[in-house]
């Protein structure tokens, strides 16, 4: 009897600790302790793991939430939030902790949150740059060395670039995220920054094919990205107003194409979309990068609804499996909507699954198994986000069991550099922001936090 009472007391203690999240800044030890407490209090709903370590050896913690938190389940899409990529941009780090608190305490009580977690696997990384956060000894609204990792590298310029050979040395934090993306079937994502108030979407870089010569770098899924950015902006307390942070920054509807704002090479957003088959947008959440702690509660209130509504968008579009005549999954089959061919063809995972984010409407979905005839199916896609379940459309190939190789995907820049003409001479029409990007950070303050 005493043992049972002791166990109950321990559980109640854990629940109390998990519920005691304050509106303050949580350094490495406190952040880890909180994540462990949440997992201990909700072991069936959460899975805590480290995807790697920073330069200084700090764990890159990820808390996974959902009905099946420990592993992917067929038909359930994977979603992720990443914050604190720049160590001195701190609001996202803290509001993701409060999002975790809100999700676990609402599960089983709030029908919408319960359905969301039952039908979505949500990965939350509060900090991608723990070393930079710890190095920011004097909080500043505009700039500190804590922006960079311990090696002095900007992690949002450190990914392979689809349009330019950026020749960067991949940092431990970047490599960990790249492996994470490779090992999961992420469908939708957002990375949280500070220094502006806007939702920015792909492409951040580009060339004449994507329209960058006209100041806008358009992806094949531009309509979906605009919808995703507006979903966040219009559910935010004030982002949709588009007023920005000063008279030089105005963003209609609170959104912007990344390249239209300023060119960025080696960014995580474009890497997710090109190589990870994951739609990611960048959320700039505060004009002040490292605001006083007494403002954090308002930031949470301003972003709470938007954070949840954005996750729901992972259920846009169509999903399904590609199988052979025996019902065995066919991995690496290419599945794309006609007219939306991606730089790297979108292909099925090890379970033969595909997920395509598409707005409601009629589409022709093309499934291709290399060496065999393509299969086309016309689908009418409704808005199923409220039902937390995208339209299901499977493909079955009648041939015998098939094993395919991955579709080819370039490892080097795809097309000639956008600032060069066909003859290789300098394109004099290249916007001056290209020059601005090469300047040191203090000269780039007007560019915000990306």
Automatic annotation (TrEMBL):
InterPro entries: CarboxyPept-like_regulatory, CARBOXYPEPT_ZN_1, CPM_N, Peptidase_M14, Peptidase_M14_domain. Residues 24-314 form the Peptidase M14 domain. The active site is at 284 (proton donor/acceptor). Pfam families: CarboxypepD_reg (PF13620), Peptidase_M14 (PF00246). Residues 1-20 form the signal peptide. The keyword Ligase does not apply. GO terms for cellular component: extracellular space. One of its GO terms (biological process) is peptide metabolic process. The keyword Glycoprotein applies. SMART domains: Zn_pept. Keywords: Glycoprotein, Signal. One of its GO terms (molecular function) is metallocarboxypeptidase activity. Belongs to the peptidase M14 family. This is Carboxypeptidase M. The gene is CPM.
């Amino acid at each position: 009897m005493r043992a049972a009472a002791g166990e109950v007391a321990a559980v109640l203690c854990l629940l109390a600790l998990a519920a005691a999240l304050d509106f303050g800044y949580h350094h490495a030890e406190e952040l880890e302790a909180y994540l462990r407490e949440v997992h201990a209090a909700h072991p069936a709903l959460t899975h805590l793991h480290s995807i790697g370590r920073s330069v200084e050896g700090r764990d890159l913690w990820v808390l996974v939430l959902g009905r099946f938190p420990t592993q992917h389940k067929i038909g359930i899409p994977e979603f992720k939030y990443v914050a604190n990529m720049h160590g001195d941009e701190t609001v996202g780090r803290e509001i993701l902790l409060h999002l975790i608190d809100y999700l676990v305490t609402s599960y089983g009580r709030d029908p919408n949150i319960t359905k969301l977690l039952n039908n979505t696997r949500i990965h939350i990384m509060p900090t991608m740059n723990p070393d930079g956060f710890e190095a920011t000894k004097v909080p500043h609204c505009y700039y500190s060395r804590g922006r960079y990792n311990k090696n002095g590298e900007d992690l949002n310029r450190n990914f392979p670039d689809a349009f330019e050979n950026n020749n960067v040395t991949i940092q431990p934090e970047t490599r960990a995220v790249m492996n994470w993306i490779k090992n999961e079937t992420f469908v939708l994502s957002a990375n949280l920054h500070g220094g502006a108030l806007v939702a920015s979407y792909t492409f951040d870089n580009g060339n004449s094919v994507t329209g960058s010569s006209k100041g806008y770098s358009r992806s094949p899924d531009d309509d979906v990205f605009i919808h995703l950015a507006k979903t966040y902006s219009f559910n935010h307390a004030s982002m949709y107003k588009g007023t920005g942070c000063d008279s030089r920054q105005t963003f209609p509807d609170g959104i912007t194409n990344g390249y239209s704002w300023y060119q960025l090479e080696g960014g995580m957003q474009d890497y997710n979309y090109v190589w990870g088959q994951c739609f990611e947008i960048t959320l700039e959440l505060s004009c002040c990068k490292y605001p006083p702690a007494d403002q954090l509660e308002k930031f949470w209130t301003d972003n709470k609804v938007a954070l949840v509504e954005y996750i729901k968008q992972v259920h846009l579009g169509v999903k399904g499996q590609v199988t052979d005549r025996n019902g065995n999954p066919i991995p690496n089959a290419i599945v794309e909507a006609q007219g939306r061919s991606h730089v790297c063809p979108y292909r099925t995972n090890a379970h033969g699954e595909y997920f395509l984010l598409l707005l409601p409407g009629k589409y022709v979905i093309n499934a291709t198994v290399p060496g065999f005839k393509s299969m086309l199916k016309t689908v009418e896609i409704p808005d199923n986000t409220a039902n937390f379940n995208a339209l299901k459309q499977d493909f079955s190939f009648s041939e015998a069991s098939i094993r395919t190789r991955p579709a080819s995907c370039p490892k080097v820049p795809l097309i000639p550099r956008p600032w060069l003409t066909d003859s290789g001479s300098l394109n004099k029409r290249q916007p001056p922001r290209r020059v601005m990007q090469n300047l040191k950070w203090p000269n780039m303050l007007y560019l915000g936090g990306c």
